[in-house]
Amino acid sequence: MAKAFYRLQKFLRRTQFLLFFLTAAYLMAGSLLLLQRTRLIIQQGSHGTSTNLALTVPDEMTRVGIADPRALQNPQHGPRLLVGMDALQEPALDQQHSPRWLVSRNSELRQLRRRWFHRFIGNQEPTQTSGFNVIKHTAEHKGTYIGCFTDDSRERTLKGTVFYDLRKMTVAHCQEACAERAYTYAGLVYGAECYCGNTLPATASKPEECNSECKGEKGSVCGGVNRLSVYRVEELRAGARRRRNVIYRGCFRAPENLTDTFPASLIQPNLTVEMCSEFCSKKEFPLAVIRGQECYCGYPTGRFSLRDGADGLRCSGTRNTSSAAEGKYCLVYQTPVQDTRCMDRKFLTTKSKVFVALSSFPGAGNTWARHLIEHATGYYTGSYYFDGALYNKGFKGEKDHWRSRRTICVKTHESGKTEIEMFDSAILLIRNPYKSLMAEFNRKYAGHLGYATDRNWKSKEWPDFVNSYASWWASHVLDWLKYGKRLLIIHYEDLKQSLIPKLREMVEFLNVTVTEDRLLCVENNRDGNFKRSGAKQKNFEPFTQEMKDLINRYILTVDEALRGRNFTGLPREYLPR
User: Fold this and answer.
1) pLDDT 10s digits, 378-392
2) Residue 64 falls inside a structural domain
3) The sheet that has 410-412: what strands, in order across it?
């Protein structure tokens, strides 16, 4: 009996070991299979979409139309034909033609497209500044450390919000930014936010309460939670008093009562632009207004909106002095100081009942539109994607889940029935495809603020890019016209030319009430931090005649579709070249 029991026990032990071994083998095999499948998907994204996922287009549909570039992971095989509007309903098979219409919208291909679309974003960010100790850093930036102060966002003394940099903020970077804007003090908070001003905060805090390390400089302190590390940057201001920081806005008719219109004034014999600008900068006003020997400081308001400029001849004299005819006209200059009346932003306190998209083709100005909307409404915008470069520059909605409904609207470049019908309404931003294609090509190879090199434009990447992206420009608009539930069409060019009227339309569409002064503040800060700078190519025409023929047919298709939905057609400048 004991012997039989021993054999049974031995068998069970072997069985237990065998089961354990089989389970481990099964898990390993599954992991290897998953890795192999991932590799296969990536290869598909690199070498082209499988033919069994695409449909071709018949001959009779080649007059005008679309091919969706999301299927074209290999840009060398771009769309060569155009599909008619009615052909969008039911693409058919044809063996004679090569352009393909993607009908499969499975999650794997969407993820591939997302990786393909954003693969350059990670390369846009410069390497983080290496760490320095506090003593070396203090010697480098030359500013005088004043101390640690309490930061109250509702009653902030350093009101000149210059920028956020949630990855690369340093003390020197903040000081230089404040110096260029002619401020006396630079304050850092949360390790990543920089504020400027000419008046010290009222309440001092204990030095140890400023304990947040600068995001871009190990060993340096950049404030803390509701605590400001404040530096005096007067030593740097001498180099910041350059004339280039004062922008001439033009000659304007003076308001009837300048004293009531402008909160600060100065009367100075032999008044110069530098004197008036310096005075207004110290008072932290963005406008310096000169009439004869009188200097006035203030903001653009409903009483003085800077919309209707006068003939410059009416403002007699030079830009250094002004003896405007009969005192009816005045010279207006933009000081280095930032207009801060529209800088406060936050997330929605309650979830939005209406899910709104801010949709556009890449390169159509979506980031700029987000900047305008955030500062006009005071609420963050979200994003269907995550762009670290935008988040680091203050678009805090980037990290919020796009379906959280805590943002006023959500950026998206997506199209297709499923992706569009998720939203209750949408602002559809459309830009000239010639400009959009160039802007997106610049972003792809030089980031949000740079320009692609001559080598990029002359390489085979550019024609491949046009072939793949031009049809996407058209299909994006057509899909939103077809599946969008409630649309507001905004043309980038109209927004640029008539900013306040178009911005007011957008704000009303978002069901937000804003003041006229806030809209004027947005206009005064219209460019934001994402205007391209650097050596822009002059008289550069990257489009061949073949490219123009392709794009022009897409323009006509989109224009016809807009008019068919009772929207205004495309602006005249879009029309075929």
Assistant:
1) 999 999 998 888 887
2) no
3) 382-383, 410-412, 356-360, 425-430, 487-491
Q: 203 and 300 share a domain?
A: no
The angle that helices 433-446 and 461-483 make with each other, rounded to 10 degrees, is 120
The amino acid occupying position 351 is K
Count the domains in the chain.
3
**Same domain, yes or no: 169 and 199:** yes
Residue in the structure block whose two tokens are 């794997």: 108
Same domain (yes/no): 251, 226: no
Task: Go through 326-342 and write b for each residue having 16 or more CB atoms within 10 A of its CB, e for each that does not.
Answer: eeebbbbbbbbbbbbbb
Q: What percent of the chain has pLDDT over 70?
A: 70
Report the length, in residues, of the chain: 577
Q: What is the DSSP string of 395-455?
A: -GGGGS-TTS--SS-EEE---SHHHHHT-SEEEEEE--HHHHHHHHHHHHHHTTT----HH
For 288, the token pair is: 């310096």
3-state secondary structure of 52: helix
Residues 382 and 448 in one domain: yes
Estimate to the nearest angstrom the gap between the alpha carbon of 416 and the chain centroid: 23
Q: How far apart are CA 161 and CA 525, in angstroms?
A: 12
Beta carbons of 356 and 407 less than 8 angstroms apart? no
DSSP 8-state class, residue 188 = E
Determine the structural domain holding residue 268 and report its residue range. 247-316+327-334
Structural element, H or E, at residue 389 = helix 388-392
Evaluated on CA atoms 307, 305, 285, 154, the torsion sign reads: negative
Tokens coding 294: 């009188």
Residues 186 and 220 in one domain: yes
Q: What is the CATH number of the domain that holds 554?
A: 3.40.50.300
- Angle in degrees, CA 384, 386, 390, rounded to 5: 115
Do 453 and 398 fall into the same domain? yes
What is the spatial distance between Cα 299 and Cα 537, in angstroms, rounded to a whole number? 35
Please give the DSSP secondary-structure letter assigned to residue 160. E
58 domain-assigned: no
Could you please report the per-residue DSSP string of 192-233?
Answer: TEEEEESS--S-B--GGG--PEETTEEEEE--BTTEEEEEE-
> Which of the pair, 454 or 98, is modelled with greater confidence?
454
Distance CA 449, CA 439 (A): 10
Q: Which of 261, 303, 299 is nearest to 280 (CA)?
A: 299
Q: Is 35 left (phi over 0), alpha (psi -120 to 50) or beta?
A: alpha
Across 545-554, average pLDDT: 93
Does 511 lie in the same domain as 371? yes
| Predicted structure pTM score | 0.69
Phi, psi of 72 (to 5 degrees): -95, 75
In the numeric block, which tokens belong to residue 363? Answer: 């390169």
Residue 496, C-beta contacts closer than 8 angstroms, at least 6 positions apart: none
Of the candidates 449, 480, 529, which has an alpha carbon nearest to the alpha carbon of residue 361?
480
Q: What is the pLDDT of residues 167-222, one digit of tens each?
A: 788 888 888 888 877 788 899 998 888 888 888 888 899 999 999 889 888 888 89
